[in-house]
Design the sequence.
């Protein structure tokens, strides 16, 4: 029984390059393995760790430390010059909404370099989960980053199901996709609201918050929790009588939100003041995005067409129409546009999912048809396109079925360096726009 | 001439002259004599201003056919003498401890003061020019004694000399114009004889350029000669240069204007425009300066601009015979000259002391210094910068209020152009008054307040710091006094203008109003604004003191000390992690890059990035200056050098004896010429 799906290639890569990024590095059973993303071929590669590591990968490794010590995500370049100083922003400052900080190296106003500081709220989720039953660990994992809980829990349960070889009904998997898309919509709306607030577009911010609240209420109504906690179970999902009528109601609710959101977008695109703050702000050039391994909407705004829903298509994404939204202007405006279009495409996707949702009896195909056998490893992993990008979890169970190893590679962690890069040469007032547009979360990266 | 005048004049000259000789032997005696001389000056000035005596001309001897060596004593020049002597007294007090420069600085300082006394008292153009030249030359030598890189100091000194001599040339041109009307050089005492017609315009332009050069106003500020020169001199010399040497420009300019007849409309326009631009540029450049004393020096340009603006209003008012407004504007100019000189001297002395203790003129250099050495600079520093940033009820506020009120009344001018120019100048001046707050918070914050303290104790602190602290508190007292006792200063300023305006502005503008007793409200026009600095001070003190007493009633004095808040992180030990002065004003450099011609570059050298920001403060950052005016001056310099080189090659083609013969011939020719002319 193989635990790794067929769309994963296994080969040893000697050196990471611009097109082959290191997505995760983890040490399991004394071996250090790496998950690589082949951007061109759109494949995930499982490999031993390439001998030549970039500075960025070093930083990735550094952040794996289990201790709660604060870490500076620094690529090592120094800044010298008359009037240059380092300006501490956070962990307790207005504007940084969570416990996380930055060192802005500047000569006043112009940002020369940004050093993100993470791990202020390190809770050691991966460490704590060891020795837990998967059901208990699920509670811990899905709550480690509340606003990405559907992605986290889906990723986790999928991995566990792979290891245990559980038969899961297709409906459960489709319901999980519904939850993930709803999560994407409310998170993107949240980012939009925060951006509007930053540009002091208070009406737009209020409107976006209203829409977000409506999505949260849909979550509560159909999934039992506003932030989708407790809905994923190992092998199934919590189903609140997802009858045909209820699905119709949900589609109607979503259509209403879609209509109102289109109005909001029309107003947004006609507000020159708003657009002026976003255009040309915090550019992340395509090559830098590749080099630093940006993921999610931030990468897609720099013309990297990587989306786990297509490149790592677990059911039902292999069965429905998914469009990758990319932009090539590389700025905050692009990132916002990617998110706006993703909201729209997620809404269409929801309609597809709800319309074609299989019955309860259909069992999904097992993913063990690739001929590769990793039984001796007894571990599995999964990638899920969370609202902020590619989420990777690697899980290993011991013989008794307890968690032996858990590794989470959150999307926010890898997006810090692209974020820092994008801010170079910008001014202080651009900071908040960049920060919000990347949709970064300390709870996510600190786990 | 009564006994007091005779004694004080003799006292002034005797003290300063003897001090300048003794300076080479004993600095302390020299400065003590300087204090005595200044005190005589203050007595004489007060006597002239308060006794309201008629102007006196002291004619000594005939120098040439057209020139008599004479002194003139009137309430007008007594007012300037008062300002100077008040500044000098404090500076000499300060120098008793400050001066650790080589021998000669004390003598030069006192000689500069003596030259200024000659300028103020001169009744004839020749003695005025003698004073002017000796002031320039002694100042030149003082700047040469500054501490720093020798080539920078030398450059600063020669720049000063160059601009000083250029100013002399233009003043000579102005005096030449006046000579053609008067037929004699004895025209500087306040008189009713007027120059008129095209000659008047000639005199006006030459005087504006000549005296304007000395005041560092636009467009001559562009090459930054004043900040470079003033900031590189020893601090006591800087105070004298910035507070009183530029005041000589104001004095000379107003003095020459009083001898011109009916003013032309364009005189007012030009004066207002130049004043407005100087004010704004001075404020902007001050706010981006990183030099401990360069910043106050740029602020001097701003304040001189304000004085010029007030004079512009006076000129336009006299064109339209608006005697009320004209009188008010002239008093405002004189009031501002007073408040600026005192505040600026105070700021220079404080900044000078701090930079001496720190050993650096760089505002970004946060070297911790001993608490003992900086005590006294906190309080007097904040009051001084408040005054320069025009915070009520201090000196700077009252005069700036007066100038802005005068500009508000531009609607009284008879033509639309004057009204528009007046209004725009008003807007620019108000903007500059706002911008200078950035500069002043920077000066106080980074210059005085935020350099760390060490617990190092100094032996005999009281004796060691006596002269420094006394001078600080002396200026503090003056700065507060000039503001709070505004009606008194208004009285002095107005009585000095009585002979020029031929009316008593004090009775018109100082009154009582709305329950405030008589002589405590200053009006700015009839009918227009009114303001009582004294009662604002009383009110502000009440607002502070009464709630303080109420909160302290029956409770213990509790002071809680905590660390500063650094975004929830530990207090950094490294100065690299502290906000600095350069960062404080970089937003202005970036926003106004079209004006500062700021260029930013980040150079990558291996793993090191070096951001280079090209901006005009070359004396700190040592980067190239992209100044159009400086380019012009550079081209002029090159042209002059090559011209003189080629001329020299023609005149002296290499044989020394030919050159000697040429000199001899020239000398004999001059002798004979002079002989025949006198005969």
Sequence:
């Amino acid at each position: 029984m193989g635990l790794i799906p067929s769309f994963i290639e296994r080969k040893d890569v000697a050196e990471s390059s611009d097109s082959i990024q290191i997505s995760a590095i983890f040490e399991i059973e004394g071996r250090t393995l790496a998950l690589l993303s082949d951007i061109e071929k759109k494949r995930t590669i499982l490999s031993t760790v390439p001998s030549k590591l970039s500075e960025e990968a070093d930083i990735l490794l550094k952040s794996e430390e289990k201790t709660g010590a604060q870490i500076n995500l620094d690529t090592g370049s120094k800044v010298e010059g008359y009037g240059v100083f380092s300006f501490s922003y956070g962990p307790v400052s207005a504007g940084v909404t969570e416990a996380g900080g930055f060192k802005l190296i500047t000569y006043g106003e112009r940002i020369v370099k940004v050093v993100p500081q993470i791990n202020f709220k390190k809770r050691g989720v991966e460490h704590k989960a060891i020795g837990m039953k998967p059901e208990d660990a699920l509670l811990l994992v899905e709550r480690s980053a509340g606003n990405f809980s559907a992605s986290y829990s889906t990723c986790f349960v999928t991995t566990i199901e792979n290891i245990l070889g559980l038969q899961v009904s297709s409906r459960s998997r489709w319901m999980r996709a519904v939850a993930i898309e709803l999560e994407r919509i409310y998170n993107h709306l949240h980012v939009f609201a925060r951006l509007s607030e930053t540009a002091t577009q208070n009406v737009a911010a209020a409107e976006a918050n209203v829409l977000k609240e409506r999505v949260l209420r849909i979550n509560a109504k159909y999934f039992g929790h506003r932030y989708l906690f407790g809905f994923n179970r190992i092998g199934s999902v919590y189903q609140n009588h997802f009858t045909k009528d209820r699905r119709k109601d949900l589609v109607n609710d979503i259509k209403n939100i879609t209509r109102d959101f289109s109005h909001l977008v029309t107003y947004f695109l006609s507000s020159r003041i708003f657009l002026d703050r976003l255009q040309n702000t915090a550019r992340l050039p395509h090559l830098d995005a590749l080099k630093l391994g940006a993921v999610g909407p931030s990468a897609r705004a720099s013309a990297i067409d990587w989306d786990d829903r297509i490149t790592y298509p677990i059911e039902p994404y292999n069965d429905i129409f998914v469009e990758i939204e990319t932009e090539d202007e590389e700025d905050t405006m692009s990132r916002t546009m990617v998110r706006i279009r993703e909201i729209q495409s997620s809404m269409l996707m929801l309609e597809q999912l709800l319309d074609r949702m299989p019955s309860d009896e259909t069992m999904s195909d097992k993913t063990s048809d690739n001929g590769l056998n990793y039984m001796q490893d007894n571990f599995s992993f999964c990638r899920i396109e969370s609202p902020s990008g590619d989420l990777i979890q690697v899980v290993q169970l011991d013989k008794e079925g307890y968690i032996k190893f858990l590794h989470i590679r959150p999307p926010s962690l890898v997006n810090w360096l692209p974020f820092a890069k994008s801010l170079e040469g910008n001014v202080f007032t651009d900071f908040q726009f960049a920060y919000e547009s990347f949709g970064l979360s300390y709870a996510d990266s600190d786990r | 001439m009564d006994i007091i005048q005779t004694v004080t004049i003799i006292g002034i000259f005797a003290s300063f002259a003897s001090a300048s000789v003794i300076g080479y032997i004993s600095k302390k005696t020299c400065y003590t004599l300087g204090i005595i001389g200044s005190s005589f000056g203050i007595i004489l000035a007060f006597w002239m201003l308060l006794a309201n005596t008629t102007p006196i001309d002291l004619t000594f001897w005939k120098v040439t056919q057209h020139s008599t060596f004479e002194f003139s004593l009137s309430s007008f020049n007594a007012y300037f003498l008062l300002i100077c002597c008040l500044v000098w007294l404090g500076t000499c007090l300060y120098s008793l401890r400050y001066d650790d420069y080589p021998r000669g600085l004390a003598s030069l300082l006192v000689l500069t003061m003596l030259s200024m006394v000659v300028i103020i008292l001169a009744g004839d153009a020749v003695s005025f020019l003698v004073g002017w030249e000796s002031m320039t030359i002694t100042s030149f030598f003082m700047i040469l004694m500054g501490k720093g890189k020798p080539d920078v100091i030398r450059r600063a000194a020669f720049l000063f000399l160059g601009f000083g001599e250029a100013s002399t040339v233009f003043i000579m041109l102005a005096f030449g114009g006046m000579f053609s009307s008067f037929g004699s050089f004895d025209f500087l005492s306040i008189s009713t004889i007027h120059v008129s017609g095209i000659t008047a315009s000639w005199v006006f332009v030459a005087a504006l350029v000549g005296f304007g050069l000395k005041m560092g106003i636009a467009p001559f500020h562009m090459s930054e000669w004043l900040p470079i020169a003033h900031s590189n001199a020893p601090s006591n010399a800087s105070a004298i240069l910035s507070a009183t040497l530029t005041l000589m420009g104001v004095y000379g300019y107003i003095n020459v204007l009083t001898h011109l007849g009916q003013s032309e409309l364009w005189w007012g326009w030009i004066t207002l425009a130049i004043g407005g631009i100087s004010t704004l540029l001075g404020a902007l450049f001050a706010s981006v300066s990183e030099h401990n004393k360069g910043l106050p020096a740029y602020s001097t340009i701003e304040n001189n601009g304000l004085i010029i603006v007030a004079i512009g209003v006076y000129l336009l008012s006299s064109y339209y015979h608006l005697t009320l407004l004209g009188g008010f504007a002239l008093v405002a100019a004189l009031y501002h000259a007073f408040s600026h000189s005192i505040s600026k001297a105070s700021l220079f002395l404080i900044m000078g002391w701090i930079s001496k203790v720190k050993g650096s003129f760089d505002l970004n250099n946060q070297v911790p210094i001993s608490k003992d050495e900086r005590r006294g600079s906190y309080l007097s520093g904040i009051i001084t910068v408040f005054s320069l940033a025009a915070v009520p009820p201090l000196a700077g506020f009252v005069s700036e209020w007066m100038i802005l009120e005068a500009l508000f009344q531009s609607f009284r001018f008879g033509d639309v152009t004057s009204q528009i120019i007046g209004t725009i100048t008003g807007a620019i001046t108000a903007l500059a008054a706002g911008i200078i707050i950035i500069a002043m918070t920077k000066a106080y914050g980074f210059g005085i307040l935020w350099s760390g303290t060490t617990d190092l104790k100094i032996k005999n602190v009281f004796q060691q710091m006596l002269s420094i602290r006394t001078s600080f508190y002396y200026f503090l007292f003056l700065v507060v006094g000039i503001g709070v006792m505004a009606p008194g200063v208004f009285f002095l300023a107005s009585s000095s203008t009585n002979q020029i305006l031929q009316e008593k502005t004090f009775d018109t503008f100082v009154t009582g109003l709305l329950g405030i007793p008589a002589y405590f409200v200053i009006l700015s026009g009839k009918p227009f604004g009114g303001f009582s600095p004294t009662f604002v001070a009383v009110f502000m003190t009440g607002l502070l003191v009464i709630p303080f007493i109420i909160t302290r009633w029956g409770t213990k004095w509790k002071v809680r000390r905590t660390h500063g808040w650094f975004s929830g992180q530990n207090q950094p030990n490294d100065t690299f992690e502290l906000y600095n002065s350069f960062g404080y004003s970089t937003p202005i450099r970036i926003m106004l890059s079209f004006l500062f011609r700021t260029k930013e570059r980040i150079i990558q050298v291996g793993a090191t990035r070096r951001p280079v920001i090209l901006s005009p403060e070359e004396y700190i950052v040592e980067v190239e200056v992209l100044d159009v005016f400086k380019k012009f001056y550079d081209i002029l310099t090159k042209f002059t050098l090559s011209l003189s080189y080629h001329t020299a090659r023609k005149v002296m083609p290499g044989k020394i004896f030919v050159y000697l013969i040429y000199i001899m011939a020239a000398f004999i020719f001059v002798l004979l010429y002079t002989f025949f002319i006198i005969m």
Remarks:
- Residues 452 and 573 of chain B are 11 Å apart (CA to CA).
- Chain B touches chain A through 34 residues (CB under 8 Å).
- The two ends of chain B are 35 Å apart (CA to CA).
